[in-house]
Specification:
The chain has 213 residues and is mainly alpha-helical. The chain has helices at 10-18, 26-48, 58-84, 87-93, 100-129, 131-141, 147-172, 178-203.
Length: 213
């Protein structure tokens, strides 16, 4: 059995990504970016807990650390989910197409696969978008010595969201279900807008990055 992407070393993951292997690709890398974004936000919260200077926000930081940990774990699972989500489509490609019935069955299975390949990165984007709330809170109230980690968390979350959505959109171009395409297109537009606005707002909270936009 092939090694799970989530269990690879950083070097191994990067090496495989750089190779001619079809996976991991942009979707898995986006999920990885999201996991790191959540990890950084959680780190700032944990670096705030137990510090006398931040006693007033300790309970809030404990909650944020737990939320960040849950999102991190979910996004780590998405690293492999994204790479395997295209399997249904690839299996459909190999289906027989000698008769009209076989051709129709093959087309239906391909459409099923394309939808699956759009759903997984959409779920990843929606999960990664939840990180912004945590990033904002730790930048505003967390340990000031780790503010840069909170800022990078926001930037990585934006990359995770928009990167995952690019994978959604490339699959939408081949899906025939108009209602599905319309629904997912609208979701993409809203999530992209949210990611861009949230990153800009959070970076603007610190003089270290307020001139970036």
């Amino acid at each position: 059995m092939a090694e799970l992407l989530k269990n690879m070393t950083v070097e191994g993951f990067a090496d495989l990504t750089a190779s001619d292997a079809p996976a991991p690709g942009g979707g898995s890398v986006s999920a990885n970016a999201g996991a790191l974004a959540a990890a950084l936000a959680g780190m700032v919260a944990n670096l705030t807990i137990g510090k006398k200077k931040y006693e007033e926000v300790e309970d809030e930081m404990k909650v944020l650390a737990e939320k960040a940990d849950a999102l991190r774990r979910e996004l780590i699972e998405d690293i492999d989910k994204d790479s395997s989500s295209f399997n249904i489509y690839m299996e459909a490609i190999g289906m027989p197409k000698d008769t009209e019935e076989q051709k129709e069955a093959r087309k239906a299975k391909m459409q099923e696969g394309l939808k699956a390949a759009a759903k997984v990165p959409m779920e990843c984007a929606e999960t990664a978008a939840k990180i912004f709330e945590i990033s904002e809170a730790v930048v505003a109230k967390g340990n000031t010595n780790a503010v840069t980690d909170g800022l990078v968390s926001a930037m990585m979350a934006r990359t995770a969201v928009i990167g995952a959505l690019l994978n959604v959109k490339i699959n939408l171009g081949s899906i025939k279900d108009e209602a599905f395409v319309a629904e997912y297109t609208a979701k993409c537009e809203q999530l992209e807008k949210t990611a861009i606005e949230e990153e800009k707002k959070i970076l603007g909270m610190s003089e270290l990055s307020d001139k970036l936009y």
